[in-house]
User: Fold this.
Amino acid sequence: MSIRHNRRAFLQLSAGAALAASSGCTSHAPGVSAAKENPPRKPNFVILFTDDQGYSDLGCFGSRDIRTPRLDRMAAEGVKLTDFYSQPLCTPARAALLTGCYPPRVGYGEGVEFPHSHTGLNPDEITIARLLKGSGYATACIGKWHLGDAPKFLPTRQGFDTYFGLPYSNDMEPLALIRGEQTVEGPVDQDSLTQRYTEEAIRFITANKDRPFLLYLPYAMPHVPLHASAKFRGKSARGLYGDVIEEIDASAGEILDTLKRLGLDERTLVVFTSDNGPWTEKGTAGGSSGPLREGKFMIFEGGVREPCIMRWPGRLPAGQTCPEVAATIDLLPTFAALAGAALPRDRKIDGKNLFPLLTGHVAQSPHDLFCYFNGKRLGAVRRGRWKLFLGRGTGETHDGKKDDTALYDLQADIGETRNVAGDHPDIVSELKSAAEKFDAEFSRSRRPVGHV
Ligand code: MG
Assistant:
């Protein structure tokens, strides 16, 4: 039995829609123009990256008590990715996004960075920012860094021209707001953080409207302690957590409005997603993973599958839903391809260029095997609809046993409730051997985290 998706063949649309709708993505509206720039200017990239937001904490991902009209509209104007993955917790998630690698590839996995840490993202790594800066991009990081707070690890040493934000999580002490490499505020007024990040982002976009830019905006919210400005506090039916998400929605709206006002809409790929699943132990202060099992820290879907929207008028079709596996590690190779920047050849990059999938030129995920890491150990793999837990570590199986493998059919059982390993020994065996093959290569080519 083949474990591949049984997908229909690629569907080529007729003239007028140069890019095609895929069989893997469902299109509700046209929205792709065949207009070509000659020569094309390098596109801008905006990454809106929330912290600890649940899979279902957006209207367009099923929330009924949090209003997110701007992000819902962004999805209607772009592609909603339903099977988009980050990592189980903050620091590894940021390392993965910025390097295009599974976290253990670059020395991360267990735990997170803390204030006065002696480790950080190795400055030898080539971040998205460093890669694009080398191609003439203006680069800004506005928000939570969390990849080491020693000067040699700060964003300004990792390819970002400018930095404004918190160097680690907003529940860590002493909390400091940094501009460049200097502390400019402490203690920090967190109520106004989202608003100030938004204003900073708009200033950066405006100042760089005539050249290609990368804006990386990792919000502090909705990581606890939750903070919202007076304008949003007490307004959501979902309490303070909802207020915080609604303020982020408004922030995204202001940034999208700015792009439109400056005539940059069709030059800019905007990505919205989160770093890890909801911190469910925080009760109403944590988010909701909706139909997914578990949340933050776990490699069940609720810990790592994130709401994700990508929008680029004229280049990505509008109103599409893409159920293929995609991930934060794919942003670096995707952006590199779009910017005409060469990927480094002296190291392994795990991410793949998503653009052919997003535009419908291919129907299947570029990930033949997607890997989930429990700390630094390969804990589970996914191929198409099948996810196999390898029986390493704790809390991995449907019944809590530590050393069992477990197979889930994510297409039929999104909540990972029924271990069907016994029904599909051939699939278990195939995925196990694919995982072992990957792991053997992976363990030979890991790179170290940075040390002070
Ligand atoms: Mg987080």
